[in-house]
Design a protein that fits this description.
Helix content: over 70%
Shape: globular
Structural class: mainly alpha
CATH class of the largest domain: Mainly Alpha
Radius of gyration: 23 Å
CATH superfamily of the largest domain: MetI-like
Strand content: under 5%
């Protein structure tokens, strides 16, 4: 009887584990099957090298580069904001903050991740952009800078929480050895703990980048819908997710070439996040082997 119960539990756990794998396979199947019709009409070379993305215009171009540029620009701004802030918070909570303060502040920081992204989007449009325009008069009403900054604020909990966990897991012997050599807390934090926790910190950064790349509502509300190949954060841009939302609103005939572009864009987005997740896994495994 006991063996039967264990087998039932084992089967249930296996099915639960298979859900994520089957879901990923299903998503990939839908993207590949739907985008195959698109790539039968548009060459992969044009898709990857054309510098214009105007599938909804009379003169159609299907170059994904402007959407990738917009996505990476807002993501870069977000990481520039989130990385130093999140890592500083993690070091402070781990090395300087009292235990009671840490137990209170860490959950409060994670509340940022629970705020709906549509709220962040309107905050970027109605508060951050007007504030920045006081100092940068040439900034457009829709731009990459404001949503990038707000996305950075949004992903701070990812970096701070995971990095703090990585720092906390560093053996106490390393801290004590550093203090025994006469190092200060600051020297111990940056020269001993951070290098020892590099794998966890790197994974947190890459997960934050993946989160920023896949963000939809903030950029859809505050970045504009003008695909352009630019590194200027003061002008309107369009990201991959924003374009998918734009076409999915229902103004494009389902089954048309224009409609199929959302699956081609989805493949590009899937490839970006897939590569980043595999890089994080490789880095984590490499550093774990190094310190074992």
């Amino acid at each position: 009887m006991r063996n039967k119960k264990e087998k039932i539990i084992e089967t249930i756990l296996m099915l639960c584990a298979a859900v994520s794998v089957l879901t990923t396979i299903g998503i990939l199947w839908v993207l590949l099957s739907e985008s195959s019709s698109f790539f039968s009409k548009v060459s992969l070379k044009d898709f990857l090298t054309d510098t214009e993305w105007t599938p909804l215009f009379a003169e159609k171009h299907f170059g994904i580069l402007p959407l990738i540029a917009g996505t990476m620009l807002t993501t870069f701004i977000a990481i520039v904001i989130a990385l130093p802030t999140g890592l500083s918070i993690a070091i402070y909570l781990n090395e300087y903050a009292p235990k009671k303060f840490r137990k209170v502040v860490k959950p409060l920081l994670e509340v940022l991740a629970a705020i709906p992204t549509v709220v962040y989007g309107y905050f970027a449009l109605m508060v951050v952009t007007p504030f920045l325009q006081k100092f940068i008069p040439d900034m457009a009403g829709f731009n990459a800078l404001s949503p990038g900054i707000v996305m950075g604020i949004m992903i701070i909990p990812i970096i701070s929480s995971l990095s703090e966990d990585a720092l906390y897991s560093v053996p106490k012997a390393l801290r004590e050895a550093s203090y025994g050599m006469g190092a200060t807390r600051l020297q111990t934090a940056f020269k001993v703990l951070v290098p020892a926790a590099t794998s966890g910190i790197t994974v947190s950064i890459i997960l934050a980048i993946s989160r920023a790349i896949g963000e939809t509502m903030i950029v859809a509300i505050a970045a504009g819908q003008q695909p352009r190949l630019t590194l200027n954060p003061l002008v309107p841009i369009e990201t991959i997710t924003t374009y998918i939302v734009q076409v999915s609103l229902g103004d494009v005939v389902q089954g048309s070439l224009e409609y199929q572009t959302i699956f081609a864009a989805g493949i590009a987005l899937f490839a970006l996040t897939f590569v980043l997740n595999n890089i994080s896994y490789f880095i984590k495994k490499k550093f774990q082997e190094k310190y074992e």
